[in-house]
Amino acid sequence: METANEHSTSQSVPVRHSRFAACAQVFRLTLRRQFFSRQTIVTAVLLGLSLGITALWAYPKSWNPDPRTSAQLASQILSPLYMGFLLPIICLSYASAAISGERTGQTLVYLLTTNIPRPLVYLAIYAAVVLLTLAVTLGGLSALCLVIDENGLEAFRVFSTVVTCATVTYVGLFLLFSAGVRRATFLALAYALMIETLTANIPGVVKRVTVSFYAKSWLYETGEPLDLAPTGAALGLFNPVSAASAQWVLALASVGFLALGMWVFSRKEYD
Amino acid sequence: MNAATPATPATPLAGVRNVSKWFGPLMALNGVSLEIGPGITGLVGPNGAGKTTLLRLLTGQIKPSLGRLEICGHDAWLAKARDRIGLCPFGDATWDELSGRQLIRVTAGLRGFTGAGAHRRAEVVLETVGMADRANRPVRTYSKGMRQRIKLGQALIHDPDLLVLDEPLNGVDPVGREELNDLFLALAKQGKAVLVSSHILHEMDQLADRILFICRGKLLASGSLAEIRDMLDDHPLKVRISCEAPRRIAPQLLTFESVKAVSIRPPEDLLLEVQNPGRFYAEFGEFAAGNDAQVHRLKATDTSTEAVFDYLMERASHPK
Amino acid sequence: MSAGLRDDWKEHQRAAWLACWPIARTALLLVFRRKLFWLLLGIALLTFMFMFGAIYLLAELKAQQPGIGRMLSRMLPDLDGSGRTFLNFMLAQGTVTMILLAFAGSVLAGNDHRRGGLTFYLSRRINVLYYSVGKLLAIGLLVSLTTTLPALILYLEQGLLVDTTEYFRENYNILFGILGYGVLLSLTIGLLLFALVSWMPRPVPLVMTWGCLFVFLPILGRILSFVFRDREESIREALEGSHWLLLNLWRDLYILGARCFGEESLRRSDEDLLTGAAVVVATVCVLSFVAMVVRIRQLQHHS
Fold this sequence. Notes:
The complex is a heterotrimer of chains A (271), B (320) and C (303).
Chain A: E1 5-7, E2 15-17, H1 19-35, H2 38-58, H3 70-104, H4 108-112, H5 118-146, H6 152-180, H7 184-200, H8 211-222, H9 233-238, H10 243-267
Antiparallel strand pairs in A: 1-2
Helix pairs in contact in A: 1-5, 2-3, 2-5, 3-5, 3-6, 3-7, 5-6, 5-10, 6-7, 6-8, 6-10, 8-10
Chain B: E1 14-23, E2 26-36, E3 39-44, H1 51-58, E4 66-71, E5 74-75, H2 79-82, E6 85-88, H3 100-110, E7 113-114, H4 115-128, H5 144-156, E8 162-166, H6 174-189, E9 193-198, H7 202-207, E10 210-215, E11 218-223, H8 225-231, E12 237-243, H9 246-253, E13 259-265, E14 269-274, H10 277-291, E15 295-300, H11 305-317
Parallel strand pairs in B: 3-9, 3-10, 6-8, 8-9
Antiparallel strand pairs in B: 1-2, 1-4, 4-5, 10-11, 12-14, 12-15, 13-14
Helix pairs in contact in B: 3-4, 3-5, 4-5
Chain C: H1 3-11, H2 20-32, H3 35-64, H4 66-75, H5 83-92, H6 94-114, H7 117-122, H8 128-146, H9 148-161, H10 164-170, H11 172-199, H12 203-227, H13 235-241, H14 249-260, H15 268-302
Helix pairs in contact in C: 2-6, 2-8, 3-4, 3-6, 3-9, 5-9, 5-11, 5-14, 6-8, 6-11, 6-12, 8-11, 9-10, 9-11, 11-14, 11-15, 14-15
């Protein structure tokens, strides 16, 4: 991709330029703008609160002096709080703001009128958002796990891979929303809180359209030592797929969302 | 040069061929054809005429519904075309949290410039737009004029062949306007094509070599102001004459073939509606020399672009 | 314009407080113009459609197959046409109403704060109070559109499908319950949303904070009620009667709303939380009001 050219300016200052450098600049700019944003403050507050609550939860009680186990952490904190709320909300806050934020701020025009092909602009934005979101989600997960010292390492090992894949898929989906509609944040919120939450409790195959279903299926299988999977009738009602299938679906969905996002972004006429 | 026929500059950098663009039921551009070459081209039209749509088409932000746009031989939608264009968009929006210098460096980066050369290029551009001494302040603290300069700077960073400026003088004080106009003229002298849109016509009077009149999505006329005036031989020009005895000479002026109407504006002014300006000036010169008309002053009251524009608007509304 | 004309024109001016309605109407029109609003409203009305159909089917079954009808009524106690039917319906609308309001809040008032719209209003005879009342009215009407109005329609449907006169005579308190709960929701959520939007006009932080209030805090409440439960207390008891559950504002409103429907609608575990819920809701209202006033004064001063 490196296409270095000599480019003479009106003031005869010879400089080199390349397409790769231009994409790297889009990446750096997105990373910077997303990191120094209000969503980072709110995310920090949410993670701070979660850490505080987890610390309270882990503090030995008179009636339960034993240290908390990874299994307890996984079932009482990580599954409901982290996977159920923090992960999708962190992903949507960064991904949905990345393009629609530039669009509502009327600064997207500066990216669209560069000489970088639009799919590459999208790819650079995607890379920046994925990197930032992964740093926050995995950082938050490790902090929550470390609250119960080395006992939490097992939970971290089980959850980290799933969280990484779910983050990439969520970011791909929410960035696609961001490329497609102006008010992507609300659409993403409706998806995260309505589709993901409501369909999760509906029997049958409807829930298979959600990212969380595959993340949970994966967790239920690989997190066997943590006793995460429901038992008896509840398991039948949930009807999980195998971990391998979940991995394939999440990977394909991530690639599919990215490709679709690049296609939408390269064709859409932004106002 | 003719109304609604394309201008044909010597070396066209941008070509618009029979371009139409509609947004749902709204037709924003209707069969526009034109060419833009080196020098300053003014794109003039009232609000909602289709100026911004044309600029967005030229800068590859939107695609035409019909027709074709080319920048230096490349389709305007392609990245290759955008390499040759610098856009200074309408409005104040920039990445406000950055300083002016950072903004220019970021845009240099977005154009793929790397290394120390990119920094030097940024400094040259800051110097060019007169912002070098104020470039360390965050953009959010800038006045409107300073924002326009920094936006202009980001458009110039890659030394484009075609500079597209959407209302660049909007909100700039008179001194700033003068400076920016000088800058545009200097860029034009370097052989660049500068396309400046404005709805304020007198801004273009002194600045533009060529003017494109656009209204209701149609290109009404293109060419230099003089060419347009020559072209509009049936355009009634208004002339005010101050003289000693207006009532005496008024009937005599009415005998001129080129004079369509005369009205007396007390105490000593006559207001003439003239059909063919060149012919009228010749006739009036002879008349004044031979009739002791004691003319103190003769002034065409509507020679500005405004008048031509009003006329074109009127003609577009009522073709007959 | 002559002085005479000006005076004549002034004579036709209405009282300034009447501007509240045009402000609310304009705000609502701004929301109605967005396609996303209609999508969210469509989702919000899914529960309503389901309830509407279920009430109809149950009533028909009761009339045609009384045995099956009675059995289904026992299986689905929430659809028996009592106050709890409508109370639970309004509770179920919580999530989608919350999403709808996060969107509407940004359009209704967020843009005023971000783009100087407040100056536009306050440069007229409209003062801060009228402006705020107008916006709160708009938010309240939106809340009613997804909660109170559908509940009223279900109440009417229920009445029309059974012995109409008798049903309405015996259950007139349900009407007041729906209206009371609706007003409570509109007022509390309206004040809270308006205060948040005043400080956080940008959509993403607003959505995150809103989500934090209505999703994160309830989860937090459950965890804390588990953490701080008494030794003898079972997990089930802890998750029903703990005061930490008051962190769930939607539930607090539900408890107060249940009181509007009459004492019999209150669950036993909720009775203990009634005072706490009232204190939480009142505190939220007062804090929101103060935050709103402080912010608007600040903006007024800046403009």
